Amino acid sequence: PKMNPQFFSLLALLAVPLQTSAFTTIPSTAYSSICPLHASSGQDETANDNSNTDSGVISIDVSDLGLVMSDLEKQIPKQDFSFESSGYQSTSRIPDVNDNGCNWVENAEDLDVTLIIPGLIRQPAEALSVLFSTTTVSITAFGLTVWSCILMGMADIDDCSFLTEEGEDGVPIIQLNVRKRDVEERWGGFILQIGEDSIL
User: Fold this and answer.
1) Which of the listed residues 19, 42, 180, 198 has the most CB atoms within 10 Å of its CB?
2) What is the pLDDT of residues 98-153, one digit of tens each?
3) Are 190 and 86 in contact, with CB atoms under 8 Å apart?
4) Hey, how many other C-beta atoms are within 10 angstroms of the C-beta on 128?
5) How many CB atoms within 10 Å of residue 108?
6) Helices (H) and strands (E) in the chain, counts
7) pTM of the full structure
8) How deeply is 60 buried, as exposed, middle or buried, from its count of CB atoms within 10 A (0-12, 13-18, 19+)?
9) CB 102: neighbour CB atoms within 10 A?
10) What pLDDT, in 10s, does the model give residues 42-97?
């Protein structure tokens, strides 16, 4: 007897394993293989730029400035650099005491210093004097050294000066101009250390 064609179709359907789905999905690897095709040269350049940034190298186009290599090789004169800094320091030998008695202003060539030392109270300004050395400054009262300090740098003692005047509350004011021996050297302050012979 002739078999019904629908019977063979039913047998073929039953021969398919039960775990096989009627729908198929494209494996993810198919997408990953396509990704490189979307990469452009612009993206590659961006990646290179990011790597340069991460390495700390930054390229700057200065062609519009009209500079040539000989311009970059020229030495810049020292006098083209100028700076001024200022600050306060304590004049006391006691570490925990900060009287801010030293006000200094540093320029490229010298320092202007104003000293108001509380220990000099009631000392007449005309009885005070200042002795300069290459590395120290000493203050005397009636010829006796009462305060001294080691300098932050080397001084040109042939070009240093001082002025004393009466101040408020009986504390005299001592103004110093200290010329640097090495011009352009940055001191960053006036007092390196209070002298051991200071009695204040």
Assistant:
1) 180
2) 999 999 999 999 999 999 999 999 999 999 999 999 999 999 999 999 999 999 99
3) no
4) 22
5) 15
6) 4, 9
7) 0.60
8) exposed
9) 21
10) 444 444 555 545 566 676 676 677 767 776 677 666 555 567 899 999 999 998 99
Q: Look at strands 191-194 and 144-151 and give their pairing.
A: antiparallel
- Assess contact for 181 and 156: CB atoms under 8 A: yes
Cβ-contact 155, 113 below 8 angstroms: no
Return the higher-pLDDT residue of 171 and 31: 171
Contacts of 191 (CB under 8 A, 6+ apart): 89, 90, 91, 102, 149, 150, 151, 152
Q: Which residue has the tokens 């300098």?
A: 151
Cα distances from 71 to residues 20, 32, 77, 135, in angstroms, run 77, 52, 14, 40
Nearest alpha-carbon partner for 145 in 130, 134, 133, 155: 130
| E strands, the chain, in order | 85-89, 102-106, 110-115, 128-132, 136-141, 144-151, 161-165, 173-179, 191-194
Which amino acid belongs to residue 147? W
Q: What are phi and psi of 46, to 5 degrees?
A: -65, -40
Q: How much is the pLDDT for 68?
A: 72
**Contact call for residues 170 and 128 (beta carbons, < 8 A):** no
The rounded distance, in Å, linking the Cα atoms of 124 and 111 is: 25
